[in-house]
Amino acid sequence: MKKYDVYAIGNAMVDYEIKVDDQFLSAHNVEKGLMTLVDEDRQKELLSAVDGRIAKKQGGGSAANTMVAFSQLGGKGFYSCKVANDPDGRFYLRNLHENGLDTNLKLDSLSEGTTGKCLVMISPDAERTMNTYLGITTDFSVSELSEEAIQNSEYIYIEGALIASPTGRIAMKKAKEIAQAHDVKVSLTFWDPSMVKYFQKEMIDLVGEGIDLIFCNEEEAMLFTGSDSFGPAREALTGVARNIAITRGKEGAAIWDGENWIDIPPFPVEAIDTTGAGDMFAGAFLYGITKHYPYDRSGKLASMASSKVVSRYGPRLELDQMEEIKNAALV
To answer: Is residue 312 over pLDDT 90?
Structure first.
């Protein structure tokens, strides 16, 4: 029996959730609804402008959100990332431990630099606008990998955002190589349409001859496969992944179990904040399949959890909420 169900790698970010209106975005030349990478000075400028309107500060990053959800449901996980020896970095390390995750990070050996931060600006229509300064996470490399933890996992989970960094790309390929050499299944999230659009060649190279599980949304599926509609895109993906989970927003999700497509119905809710819906879906789905639940029930769990997270602010839920969702979906 493996020590870990899932070993993940990704960008470590501290999320600053901020409630804003459209006037604020316009006044500060922030493009609504997009994730924009900014430099440190620009982020400091925006932080100064919000003037105390920070609703919450918490550990973040796509793969980290996935792994926290996975751990809350009862999965055993390990998360490799990179933070700096600053207040945000130390906060991030504590947050991982508080959420039951093992990590490569050690308090006495954090690097000098600035921990990455994401300003998640949430407008009244529930749209999320992110301005991100990656900081030291841009230096994520093979040095942050734990070969022992990879070997002792059932799955690895790779965050597609790492594809934008040269050292990150090398680490992604190395993690995949180690996993496949030890019969560890490989899963990948495309993370964001921008990664597939601007790094399509690199993403195709990473996928190579195939991987075990791809997480994506409809737009990412079409961009990766060069298809102009959902049907052809999902069929094309079956040629490179043994299993596939495609989120479709209000349409629910589509799961490829290796033989058939399974349509997962949505759980209609009033969306307040769409931040982290895909991350939550991946964490819950990984929990289901690593605990050997059927794909339809794992998809139901993932759909229920992601619908719950968009009905509140932030990309994470509380432990008791996750337990309630698990009991409702898997009994």
So the answer is: no
